[in-house]
Amino acid sequence: MSRLADYFVIVGYDHEKERSGIKQGKIIQRYPQKDWEDTPFNQGIELFCQPAGWSLSMHRQPPKFFVSVLTDIDADRHYCACLTFTEPVAMPTSKPDDEDAERDDGGLVHGALMFAPKSLALVSRLDYYETFRNCIGIIYTVYIENMPIQLETLVGNILGCIQVPSPGGPQVRFSIGAGDRQALQPPLSSSLPVTHTSVYTFFHQMGIHNSLTLLSAILSDHKVLFLSESYSRLTDASHALVSLCFPLKYSYVYIPLLPAALLEVLSTPTPFIMGVHSSLKNDIADMLDVIVADLDGGSISLPEHITAPKIPDPAYSRSLRSLFTVLHPDLQIADYAFPSSHVRATTPTMLDKEIRAVFLRMFAELLLGYRSCLTVIRIHPEPFITFHKAMFLGHRGMVEDEFMNKVLDSMSFNTFVSERGPPYKTLDMLDELYASIERMLREEEENPDRMLKNVHELAQQLYINENPNPQPYVQKIPRPTEGSHLRIHQPMFPVIDWVQVQDIVDEGVSKQNIKSRLNQARPQQLKMVPMGPDIVAIGQRQMAVDSSTRRLEVLRNCVNCIFENKIADARKTFPAVLRTLKSKTARLALTHEFALHVQSNRAMLEHQQFDLVVRLINCALQNDSPMDEHGVAAAFLPLVTAFCRKLCTGVIQFAYTCIQDHPVWSNVQFWEQTFYSDVERHIRLLYVAPQEGLIADAEPALAPSSPREKQSPLGSNWGADAFRTGITAENRRSVLMRPPQKKALEIAAEQMRMWPHLSPEEQQECIQNEESTVYSQAIHYANRIVYLRVPLDISKGIRSPMSFEESTSNSNFTNSVAESDSFDAESGFEEDTSEVGAQIIRFCSRFVDKVCTEAGVTNEHIQSLHQMVPGVVTMHIETLEAVFRECKRLPPIQKPKILTPSLLSGEEIVMGGLRVFLVPDGRDVATGANGGPQLLPAEGAIFLTTYRVIFKGTPCDPFACEQIVIRCFPIVSLTKEKKIGSQYLTHIEQTMAEGLQLRSNTFQLIKVAFDEEVDSENIEHFRKMLHRVSMPQTVYQMFSNIAAQPPTPLHREKMAKNATLKAMAKKTITKTARRVGLKQKQSSKRQKYVLPTPVIPRRIVTMSQTSYESDASASGGERPLSSNFEDELSVIDEVGTDHPFAMLQRSNTLEKLIDRCYCKDYQRLGFLHQSAGMSVFPSKISGSYDRNRLSPRGGSRWVHNLPGLGTIGSNLTRTKSESFRISTVNVNYTVCRTYPAAIVVPSAISDDSIVKLAKTHRHNR
Predict the structure, then answer these.
(1) Neighbours of 878 (CB within 10 A)
(2) Is 1190 exposed, middle or buried (0-12, 13-18, 19+ CB in 10 A)?
(3) Cα separation, 67 vs 81, whole angstroms
(4) InterPro entries this protein is in (predicted)?
């Protein structure tokens, strides 16, 4: 039993603070003045008594009642029931100066009559809102009606004389001493929320779809804010939304009435449910991550980047249909020609319960099979149970469902598992509904009218839970007369004598203690929780069989051929087996078949056997997800530590060194769930009957085992029983005829029932055995993590994705021992300080720390595990060094011979064949999808010729390996070349690092993955040659014109003399320099020319004409690439501003502008001035030099007459309106490398200004 109310508080307006401009309330009186030991007083109640803020009003306000919810530091909720009324207050006013002499009232100052709010509040840990309203209303009635009853008696009786029984107790009838008669009825179950009519009111305000959206939002950890003009509606709506979440409990911030002074709390990063008065709507308009629900308008507002995930079907559709049937019964008969006159009339209270019944059914359907995924880790002294999330999502087909993933990862679901996971506890309505929901849904599918009947029966149970007493009790509650708050002469609320109140409270508490000892509550009856439907059976009904018996038989025969060393026969069906492994059933069958061929801790294989086994394991893991929802990776764990091959004397390679690239091994949740599954199996073996224990004793020991039993290689997966007895495929039927064994939850329930009857010695023995089991498995899994996480080649680092290391686990765990300083002890080994070793140690230590602390392992054992991990990592790295060294000595796998393609007449190979794999590109051509042989992927080589890009090879499928695959297209038709990252090829079980995708305008596509023997340099060289051949410099270099334009003997002689443009340019520059009197400077790196007389030079950067011409042509008429530009730069030491060589370079560069496309555009637009009657040689530029006008860039002003273009120059350029000119300041690309040589600028801007402005921009742009 507990007190009805803990504190009675009187809160009034703080007039002292009001004089300084601060409007707030203060606690005037509180009773009792001394805090209760079990319930300390909550500070800040004055803020919640007036959520919109404390202020004076000019009119009398009617009394208002509402309930605020406060949360203490222990996350316990306290309910503050407030009744607020107003009292008159005389406010002094200043008198005018001109009226001082005329006043005859003796100098008194008249005041303005204002009304200050005052609140009477009851603070309690219980949520009996109506009882609070009655009690606090009686106190106000006695005050306002001036009844001859002491307020001290009323307050003392409320605080000390009324004790509320626990849920399931009898009805309490009481009076607080004002002639009242009241009754208080606790609910039958403490877990079911009490809503009265709040849920019905919430749906009436928001509608069905908006209500479902808000429910989905809070279950997926979004922020929800309610707005309303009514405080009571805010509280009721928040309570209704939280009640709809049952059986989940909302665990985040819950403030139904947020005071105006605490609006900054809305910026918290955690999810919340809050309510704010509509008058504060403008203060919260800038929130971008909050879903706002307007209760008065019935609308919700979702930010643009936030979407509430949809509840998965069919639960959502079925619930939506049920809600329409309950809330709108006339909808079904709206189209009837002769509707019935009898429409079902339901009270708001029953409608409230029917709505809750619909949602209770929805959650039972969503969580169907969850008890099959509970894992028992410890039974004694307290049960510790976890939830296998991946198994649940996999069998229910919800791996990709956003809503269920968020719900299962939430704090609410963790609380749900910890409270409802134990198999021996007090049952409630949900446990019974969960056991029968599947049967009910099947009946409703056959008879849809059955749905409404089932909902009504469930609603009736909810109603009885809130109203268990069928006999009505007429209460008598004094109420004030209507309009009593408008009385003019109303006295102030009196001061209550706290001594008298304390005496009444003490006397009442002493009497209640005696009654509580005499009337002990009945102990709650504990029962075994029904298991409900099995998750495996649900998954088989929901998902069709995806593998035929014939395919599984082919898989079995292939595995048998491998272990019988019939490699040729195994390779015939190997591709079909790889395709079969896309099925979940086939992957599980593969693990079972492998387990049947392991007869001891180690299975030594030949090299070819080892390779095929590893390829099958890699294919199975590749087709599985990182969550391992079907337990495939968990089943492979003991197998990969058993399969091995001998490399040399003393060096053995295990299969786990070849399967480390899969992301499942870096998923923390996978390791935790697999560890918990194995621990559960061993805990079960501690308590099974002797005849069941004999079966477990017969299993071979593949790994370190617990003190009592040994471990099965298949863990908790199907087929493990067959392996335990050591049977083979011939006597599988006897295994299927074995009677079902007790599940771990059933054994745990029996042990929890027997626990109080055990002696202390027996209890201690059970605790020690369970702890030893967990500890031994922690050692075993620490070694497994090291095996699967340390790469074979330690120099390449960890190749698997690291994003899973920081993933959240399925429980909330703090107080990390691994990161504390108390266990920082030496391990006895020289610890590996490399980056990979440190990552593995950190990963393993966190795993050990978490699972051992949750499972109740002692600190001494956890410390020893932390000391062991660094040594295990170091020793394993040393062992892998010898394995890696011997692996490199293995003979390489023979690859198919490269087939040379047939060439056309005149076609030549530009670049030899690079070994590649032609992979499917998304089309169904040659993939076997439309019938015919599967030609892709194909292994061969890619060739680059002067005309085509050619792939030629053979299919990887051995049934089609005699055919030739050729794919090609003309090189000039190449439209797009795309570099592809690493991709996994299923048929060869390899991950290719690089690839290319070539697309042509002939509707052809070549997608290749380069073999591992092709290095990055050859791939990059192939790409460069591809672009060079596809875009020739001239049309004469195209394949169609090569034969038509044979080079003449004179041309060939010139080509031999000046083989390249670079050599020609170098020779031209050398001759020109000699003519002008420059001497060549000896240098080992680059030729530089200096004057014979030592002067102080200025340095300019120029580029040779020939090199520029070559690069410009290669780049399609644009400026040369930056790499070529830098390679051809020469540094010229300049003596004066009018050096002839610089002028020659400038003129030669300007000569090439006539071939530029933008110069022709300038001419077409009228920027260039045409010169009539110009006498120009076709191969020269006639220029005039003006020494009196010097260029700011170290050159003279030049005027150039270009053939066919007229006059262009830095000072003589003309435009149509003389407002623009063409500047050649960037003729050598010395100002900006990415701008053209000739640019159009305003005439008022000089070249010097352009140079200065360019320096102020990025890259001189």
Answers:
(1) 12
(2) middle
(3) 4
(4) cDENN_dom, dDENN_dom, DENN_C, DENN_Domain_GEFs, GRAM, Myotubularin-like_Pase_dom, Prot-tyrosine_phosphatase-like, SBF1/SBF2
Q: At which residue do the structure tokens 């040399």 appear?
A: 648
What's the mean per-residue pLDDT of the chain? 78
Q: Name the band, by pLDDT with cuts 50, 70 and 90, for residue 692.
A: low
Q: What is the DSSP string of 89-120?
A: EEEE-PPPGGGTTT--STT---EEEEEEEEEE
Helical residues (DSSP H) of 1088-1170, grouped into ranges: 1105-1114, 1122-1127, 1140-1151, 1157-1165
Length of the chain: 1261
Q: How far apart are the first and last CA of the chain?
A: 82
Q: How far apart are alpha carbons 343 and 327 in whole angstroms? A: 12
**pLDDT value of residue 785:** 93
Is the model's pTM score more than 0.85?
Answer: no
- Reduced to 3 states, what is the DSSP secondary structure of residue 1255? coil
Q: Between the CA of residue 1157 and those of 825, 886, 1163, 1175, what are the distances in Å?
A: 75, 63, 10, 24
Tokens of 957: 């499928």
For CA atoms 1053, 1058, 1060, 1061, the dihedral sign is negative
Which residues are CB-neighbours of 1231 under 8 A, at least 6 positions away?
1225, 1250, 1251, 1254, 1260
Residue type (1 letter), 834: S
Report which of 121, 120, 124 is spatially closest to residue 36, judged by C-alpha positions. 124
Q: What are phi and psi of 467, to 5 degrees?
A: -130, 70
CB of 145 within 8 A of CB of 120?
Answer: no
* Measured distance CA(1167)–CA(1221) in Å, rounded: 7
C-alpha to C-alpha distance for 926 and 932, rounded to whole angstroms: 8
- pLDDT score of 532: 84
**Residue 213 in this model has a pLDDT that exceeds 90:** yes
Dist CA 29 CA 120 (whole Å): 10
Query: CA-to-CA distance for 566 and 763, rounded, in angstroms?
Result: 56
**Torsion angles phi and psi, residue 149, rounded to 5:** -130, 135
Q: Is 378 helix (H, G, I), strand (E, B) or coil?
A: strand
pLDDT at 697 over 80: no
Contacts of 965 (CB under 8 A, 6+ apart): 918, 926, 935, 936, 938, 940, 951, 952, 953, 954, 955
Q: What sign has the CA pseudo-torsion 320, 326, 330, 335? A: positive
Query: Tokens standing for 930?
Result: 């439309």
Residue pair 358/455 in contact (Cβ under 8 Å)? The answer is: yes
Q: What is the pLDDT of residue 1075?
A: 66
Considering only CA atoms, which of 66, 47, 64 is closest in space to residue 132?
Answer: 66
Tens digit of pLDDT for each residue in 152-171? 999 999 998 888 888 888 88
Of the candidates 319, 315, 348, 342, the residue with the CA atom closest to the CA atom of residue 330: 342
Side-chain half-sphere of 553: how many Cα atoms within 13 Å? Answer: 3
Condensed to tens digits (0 to 9), the pLDDT of residues 753-802 reads 999 898 999 999 999 999 999 999 999 999 999 999 998 888 776 654 43
d(CA 714, CA 316): 37
Q: How far apart, in whole angstroms, are the C-alpha atoms of residue 809 and residue 807?
A: 6
Asked if 139 and 157 count as a contact pair (C-beta separation under 8 A), the reply is: no
Amino acid at position 844, single letter: C
> Distance (Å, rounded) from C-alpha 374 to C-alpha 414?
12
Give me the long-range contacts of 16-24 (CB less than 8 A, separation at least 24).
18/56, 23/53, 23/54, 23/55, 23/56, 24/54, 24/261
The Cα–Cα gap between 715 and 679 comes to 10
pLDDT tens figures, 43-54: 889 999 999 888
Nearest one of 905, 903, 948, 910 to 1043, comparing CA atoms: 905
Strands 163-164 and 111-124: unpaired
And the tokens for 869? 């991990």
